[in-house]
Write a sequence for this structure.
């Protein structure tokens, strides 16, 4: 769309993607990408971490289900999408504005990991990807309130239970540069990415009722 601010962000997932469904049946996956810049300190002759940027992201429809079945906490990803600004009111009545990202494309970083692509059969969505482990982590399907379509708040809570869970194509590749995972059940690799990659050192993401800045 004309006038959109399109960006690409590289970083680690702070948690497993959360998959939900709108009343109209549209899937939406929410997740946060932690991106930490690295700078070389000539005085100490070593690389140092800068301040971590936490970007809250949403992806819709078939891609949302693929993301929930393919990505796990700690994995290093490359995401491209459009920035958007959203205003909301906290429980205390304070008005706040957050900047979020509507993801158009996302995939794993292959700098220190491998992934196998498996085309899905859901329809118009692109292929999901899975790694060399024995189990893929998936999101839990919960329903969000409001009316259908991308105009809805993808971070809203509440509603009934959805009907999709993770699994599918296998997975569990090592995320980030922090370690190699080879255990069963997709558990290997989710620990490594937490402090790995170029941007290690990120901590807890902001809570959902607080802006990420």
């Amino acid at each position: 769309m004309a006038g959109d601010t399109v960006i690409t962000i590289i970083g680690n997932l702070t948690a497993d993607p959360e998959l939900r469904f709108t009343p109209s049946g549209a899937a939406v996956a929410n997740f946060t990408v932690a991106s930490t810049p690295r700078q070389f300190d000539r005085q100490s002759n070593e690389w140092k971490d800068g301040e971590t940027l936490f970007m809250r992201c949403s992806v819709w429809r078939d891609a949302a289900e693929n993301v929930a079945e393919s990505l796990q906490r700690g994995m290093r990803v490359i995401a491209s999408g459009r920035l958007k600004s959203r205003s909301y009111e906290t429980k205390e009545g304070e008005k706040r504005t957050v900047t979020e990202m509507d993801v158009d494309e996302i995939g794993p970083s292959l700098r220190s990991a491998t992934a196998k692509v498996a085309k899905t059969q859901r329809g118009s969505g692109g292929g999901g990807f899975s790694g060399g482990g024995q189990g893929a982590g998936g999101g839990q399907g919960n329903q969000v309130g409001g009316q259908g379509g991308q105009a809805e708040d993808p971070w809203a809570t509440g509603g009934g239970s959805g009907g999709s869970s993770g699994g599918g194509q296998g997975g569990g590749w090592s995320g980030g540069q922090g370690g190699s995972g080879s255990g069963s059940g997709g558990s290997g690799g989710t620990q490594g990415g937490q402090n790995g990659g170029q941007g290690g050192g990120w901590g807890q993401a902001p809570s959902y009722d607080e802006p990420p800045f």
